[in-house]
Structure formats: structure tokens, C-alpha cells
Amino acid sequence: MKKENSFVKILLAIFGLSSYLHANSLYGQASLRALPGVELFVHCAGDFEIKKLEGEIREKLKKRLENANVPIIAYNAPNNGGALKLLLTGFKKEEDNYFIYASLQLHQRAYLAVSHEYMDCQTWDIWKMGIFSKSEIFMETEDMIREFVNDFISANGF
Length: 158
Fold this sequence. Notes:
With 158 residues, the chain is α+β, with helices and mostly antiparallel strands. It is 40% helix and 34% strand.
């Protein structure tokens, strides 16, 4: 009985404070302010043809970040950069078309005021889903990184 009461109190604390925490959290463009840089991770899953795109997509996105002067640093570096993760899954639908779900997420260490701890959490994201040709997959992933770069530049004023 005592464990159940504790569990209920924890749930009430979490859900009771969730609107306050969401309203006062840094998410989206605001989370990019003063971000020292990112480490890029790309993971493609699904059909073998989709998995083969991983290296080429990584190089294109890395080049796009470098051209926009977004620093590329190690995620676990002392200055706490972010981990920019592209997760792309898909399968061949027709001859030259693939059903794709792609998610670009920024993960950062964030301070939790409730527990006075730091934890890794997602602070920015964008996703796309649809039927694309191989060339359109590259265009869509580059468009996603362009959205990140635009938010990064806007948040940091340069």
C-alpha cells in the first residue's frame, strides 16, 4: 500500500508539473542559442538499398553543416555540444520509389530543475515521411539539415 501511494505521488508530481516544465523549457530554436557545435550521426535502416545510402547522406549533411559554419565537435566534449541524429528508415515501394520516414533530432544535456540533475534529451527535431525517389531522399535530408542550420543561425545571430 505504501509503494502505491508513493507511485501516485510521483505521477501527480510529474503530470502536475509537466505543463509548467514544458512552458519554461528550451526546445526548438531556443535550445540552439549558444550551442558550441554538434556531432553528426546518421543511421539508415530498412531495405538494403536504403542502408547503402548512409555514408553518402552523412557526407552531404556534414558538408552542408561545414558550409554553414556550424562547428562539428564531439558530443561528449567538455563544452557540451549536441548530438545531431538523422534516423532514416524505408523500403522500396515501386521501381524507383521508396517509402521513407526520416527524423532529424538534436540531443543535448539538459538540466532538470525537479531532480537537480543533467540528462540527455531531445531539444530540437523535424521529420518527414512520404514516397520519394533516391534523388529526392537526398534532397529531403538536405532540406532537413537546412532547417536546422537556419534555426542555428537565427538563434545565434549570425
